[in-house]
Write a sequence for this structure.
């Protein structure tokens, strides 16, 4: 290989630097060896394997994790759940039905206000609601001041409460707030202020005067030729349009509002104009309903067994049946019979749920449904 004069100089310089670095490393090694030996002999001798080091020495041997690892230590499942609490958030579906959903949130002072804050339209809240197939009910950027004392929740909403597009949106906002707050045992009544002022109505006519108590949710339209003073409400649960949430509906009935009436009305399905889905298979009827020692024993006709053909094996429908039955005082469980024979729908399918909807269950159901659709498509 031939070099020009300039290249030869650079090569010689690089070689000289390499030799100098090697010599420096050798010198440093020879210098450190006696120094470390002197330090070892001057200190406490290393204990024999049978000896137990003093606690101070043991601590000195513990390796300190890197800053990144210290900032995010691994947690067990129980530790990850620590500091979390359940709260019921009220959303709405695409048709305006209000839907209660139990969510796990970080425990904090003022959990009632934190619950309402999750119902406010925002990027994060809307994404969470969309995962459930639902929507938020409070307008964007609305301020919320809340004071609870003596069973009364006094809530002051910002002026954004005056900007809703119609009476339905106003009504859903007020009802959702009352329902969410009265889920807490410390709240019996709710009183509203708007931007610090008491008002009679919102711009589209929704009443916000006086004190509000928990009310019937999602009332069905009653026939105009029926006298409402003779009717009594029962709550029925029907699957929503996505088939992953249960929507509570209030239906006015003109017979005794007991468990037998509720089960018969559940068999009838949602009203004709409703987008909600039926709980029980077409043609399924009720032979009889008995209550023994707090257990409702319901005898269905043979069509009931087609419930197992649902995509989830009928679990959501059975949950709707249990919720519909256990709204009545004294009913603690449900047993099913088909044409007089005991019917076993599967483990835990008739257990009393803590809430009509649980956020984690809704997401799991959605993922399972999408997966089954993909496999069926393939």
């Amino acid at each position: 290989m031939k070099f020009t004069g300039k290249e030869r100089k650079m090569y010689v310089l690089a070689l000289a630097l390499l030799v100098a670095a090697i010599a420096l490393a050798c010198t440093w090694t020879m210098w450190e060896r006696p120094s470390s030996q002197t330090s070892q002999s001057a200190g406490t001798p290393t204990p024999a394997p049978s000896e137990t080091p003093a606690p101070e020495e043991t601590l000195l041997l513990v390796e300190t994790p890197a800053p990144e690892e210290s900032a995010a230590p691994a947690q067990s499942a129980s530790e990850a759940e620590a500091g979390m609490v359940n709260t019921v958030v009220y959303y709405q579906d695409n048709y305006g039905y209000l839907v209660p959903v139990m969510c796990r949130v970080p425990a904090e002072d003022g959990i009632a206000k934190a619950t309402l804050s999750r119902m406010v339209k925002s990027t994060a809240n809307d994404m969470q609601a969309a995962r459930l197939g639902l929507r938020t009910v409070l307008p964007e950027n609305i301020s919320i001041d809340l004071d609870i004392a003596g069973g009364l929740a006094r809530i002051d909403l910002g002026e954004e409460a005056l900007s809703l597009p119609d009476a339905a949106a106003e009504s859903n906002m007020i009802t959702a707030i009352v329902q969410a707050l009265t889920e807490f045992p410390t709240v019996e009544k709710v009183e509203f202020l708007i931007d610090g002022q008491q008002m009679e109505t919102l711009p589209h006519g929704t009443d916000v005067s006086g004190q509000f108590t928990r009310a019937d949710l999602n009332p069905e339209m009653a026939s105009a030729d029926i006298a409402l003073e003779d009717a009594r409400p029962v709550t029925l649960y029907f699957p929503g349009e996505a088939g992953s949430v249960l929507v509570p509906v209030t239906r006015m009935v003109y017979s005794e509002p007991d468990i037998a009436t509720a089960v018969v009305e559940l068999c009838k399905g949602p009203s004709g104009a409703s987008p909600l889905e039926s709980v029980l298979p077409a043609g399924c009827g009720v032979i009889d309903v008995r209550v023994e020692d707090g257990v409702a024993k319901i005898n269905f006709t043979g069509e009931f067994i087609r419930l197992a053909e649902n995509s989830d094996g009928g679990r959501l429908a059975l949950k709707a049946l249990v919720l519909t039955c256990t709204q009545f005082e004294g009913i603690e469980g449900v047993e099913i019979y088909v044409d007089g024979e005991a019917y076993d729908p599967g483990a835990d399918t008739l257990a009393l749920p803590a809430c009509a909807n649980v956020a984690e269950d809704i997401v799991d159901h959605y993922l399972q449904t999408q997966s089954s659709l993909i496999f069926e498509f393939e």
Summary: The mean pLDDT is 82. The first strand starts at residue 84 and ends at 92.
